[in-house]
Amino acid sequence: MPSEHIVALLVAERDRLTRAIEALQGPTKRRGRPPKNPLVALATPAPAKKGRRTFTAAQRKAQALKMKAYWAKRKKEGK
What we know:
The chain is mainly α. It has a domain at about 1-30. It has helices at about 5-25, 40-45, 55-79.
C-alpha cells in the first residue's frame, strides 16, 4: 500500500472521529467571522491568558514611597 493512500485513510478516520465527538458534545456557540481555512483554526492552539501582575508587600511600599516623593516634588514646583 502506498503511503499516500494510508495517510488519506487516516485523515478520513480522523474526520469521522472528530464529527462523532462534536455530535456527542453538542453544538458549540461560536462568535465572530469563521476562519478562511477551518483546518488551520483547529490546528492552532488557543493563546494563553495573561494573568494580572501583582505586587508584593515590599514592592507596594516602595512604590508608595516613590509616589509620595513624586507628588511632594510636584507640589513644591507648583508654589
